[in-house]
Design goal:
Blueprint (H helix, E strand, L loop, with lengths): L4 H12 L11 E3 L8 E2 L13 E5 L2 E5 L5 E5 L10 E5 L6 E2 L1 H4 L1 H9 L3 E6 L9 H15 L12 H16 L1 H4 L6 E6 L1 H12 L9 E4 L15 E6 L11 H8 L4 E6 L18 H11 L8
Parallel strand pairs: 6-8, 6-9, 9-10, 10-11, 11-12
Antiparallel strand pairs: 1-3, 2-5, 3-4, 4-7, 5-8
Helix pairs in contact: 1-4, 5-7
Length: 304
């Protein structure tokens, strides 16, 4: 596992907190990858959008911005290994982009390889400039602001992204029989902005629409009002995360006070945006721990 270019570039921006640094990041436009399995969610467009959806590459990692139509891509396990559990995977990127090669497809493939049906959510994003150089400036400004100690990043959660997450949950449950899934064992896992989307779906849910479990990965740790029907939570953060590591652990404490099941892994190092794990750190073990947690809590066996 490697710490990918997008994650490293974001960590550089955060460490320097200088928007101009973003201008030095090498981002190259690429054609959109062919995704014939993607299912449109039909949740509408993006108000104020003027630029089309576009893909770019940093290092070897594919990333998308200006998403105006949400989709969900199934990545299903071998039926012989399928557990009946499912996870909707929401990549991050500050609601300005989605890091698909870092926090989307590889995560879904790993889950499917371990018997868990996965669904990559490409949710709608905030509009950004058509010009790449202008976008890099916008990205630098965003992350510099988000890194400030007085910034409540959770306030920036996207309503469109939350609606897309809700639609994704509903779709997977509606087609559970087709995909060999137990509709009562469908959860969400999200990274950074995707973690905020996952939490936003949870806080807005009714008991009937609540995810079975949630896994916010290096997301905001600010406290929330925990719903009475809140699901079990698995969460991950690096101690040197420049966005969230020094803003308290209110989210974890809120789940504990509400007497809801929670497992929290605080890794010594990893920074922000480490995806499947930062090389040379113990953060590479989080996804194995996540599967073990699902198994221990009974999500990988049919409920009796």
């Amino acid at each position: 596992m490697i710490r990918v270019a997008i994650g490293a570039a974001i960590s550089l921006l955060l460490a320097s907190a200088v928007p101009a640094t973003a201008q030095g990041m090498r981002m190259e436009a690429i054609p959109a990858p062919v995704d014939t399995a993607a299912i449109p969610l039909g949740t509408g467009g993006v108000e104020g959008a003027t630029a089309p959806e576009s893909w770019f590459i940093s290092g070897t990692q594919r990333t998308v911005r200006n998403v105006q139509q949400a989709t969900l891509t199934p990545v299903l396990p071998d039926p012989a290994k399928a557990t009946g559990a499912a996870v909707i995977v929401a990549p991050g990127g500050g609601f300005l982009m989605l890091s698909m090669d870092n926090e989307g497809w590889p995560v879904a493939r790993w889950l499917a390889d371990h018997g868990i049906a996965a669904f990559v959510l490409k949710y709608r994003l905030k509009p950004t400039s058509r010009d790449m150089a202008d976008f890099q400036k916008e990205l630098g400004t965003f992350f510099a602001r988000a890194a400030r100690a007085d910034t409540r990043v959770v306030d920036g959660a996207s309503r469109a992204a939350i609606e897309d997450g809700q639609a994704a949950l509903a779709l997977v449950r509606a087609r559970a029989g087709t995909w060999g899934i137990d509709p009562k064992r469908v959860g969400m896992l999200g990274f950074s902005a995707g973690a905020m989307t996952t939490l936003g779906v949870t806080l807005a849910a009714t008991p009937e629409t609540m995810p079975a479990f949630i896994a916010p990965i290096y997301g905001s740790m600010e406290p929330v009002v925990v719903p009475a029907a809140a699901p079990p939570m698995f969460s991950v953060l690096a101690g040197d995360d420049p966005l969230f590591a020094r803003k308290g652990l209110g989210l974890i404490e809120a789940w504990q006070v509400a007497r809801k099941p929670v497992e929290f892994h605080l890794y010594q190092k990893g920074g922000h945006g480490f995806g499947m794990g930062a090389t040379g750190t113990t953060s590479t073990g989080w996804i194995v721990a996540f599967r073990n947690w699902l198994a221990a809590d009974g999500f990988l066996e049919p409920k009796r």
